[in-house]
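One such given next:
>
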Amino acid sequence: MTTKLRFTAGRLHADLVPPEYVTSHAPQAAFVGLVNLLSESLGAEALATSDDFFAGMENLVKDSPAIFLPDEYTDRGKWMDGWESRRKRVSGNDWCILRLGVPGEIRGVDIDTAHFLGNQPPFAILEATSFEGQGLPPENAKWTTIVSQAPLRPGSQNLFVSESTDIFTHVKLTLFPDGGVARLRLFGNAAPRWDAKAPEGTPVQDGEVDLAALAHGGRALACSDAFFGPMNNLIAPGRAVNMGGGWETRRRVGRPYDDRPDWILVELGARGSIGLLELDTNHFKGNFPDRCSVEAIDLPGASITDVLESNDWFTLLDEQKMRASERHFFRAELLSDAPCTHVRLFVHPDGGVSRLRAFGTRA
């Protein structure tokens, strides 16, 4: 009988597979405050490889944690959730070229060898380049080493600090000589291009861009809670494919400061005036907030704590009633068009929001 796997918010549901036969490797470490530029949800893609005989290169950019099915095999060997090449019987090293979801500065690297215990690469190098065209970078592309040849531990997150501060669009992971890697995560800051299109049906006006979008350099900096969904999901591209693709808090009952709503702080990609707000509760049907409100502040270059503790916040959107799994647009309801650098979304009292978009003009 065929096993069907469904992935939701990094959690695996395996029909017909007892839980004791499925193990998951959830990342334990990350570069806090930075965005995974090689995230599948951002549009990252594996473009080419020297060999992926045992497991496909496309697995490297998956957002879900790597899983292991002890008794799962294919006609080529053991099924693995990652990229795995054959054992080298000739000279050379295996490689994979990948395109970042958005161009950016790579600050931290995670070469995750989850579940690769006797078949991980002994060593690896990571290089990067910038290429504006379509497809693969040209043969004469200049590659910059951002992680020099380093040993890789089996079944582990292998973390490195990048050796460059340039803006890159593509990376090349080279194994010495072969083996398997479950996930490649590249943490950094997006370099805004301001060319991301608004989702179809968005009532934007000429000149308005999404100031909060990850693709435009927006960042979720802090929140009261993110138990069910990571902060940066809130400003990710497109619409979420399921409930796990949004930001969701725990139920407030029994938690400290019960009378306070949950909140999330977002730094805009550029200082600007907001003319249209979108709050999308897509897929949140029994757990959407009862009401939402938004504040804004203009504090360029301020630290996170200074922003949170400032008395200069002003109300951008008063409390508005929310509905299940629906895109909510607010233009006439906005109370200010003053320039701002950060926004803070309040969900009353708790719940999940799939996307926040702040369309406006850069100051």
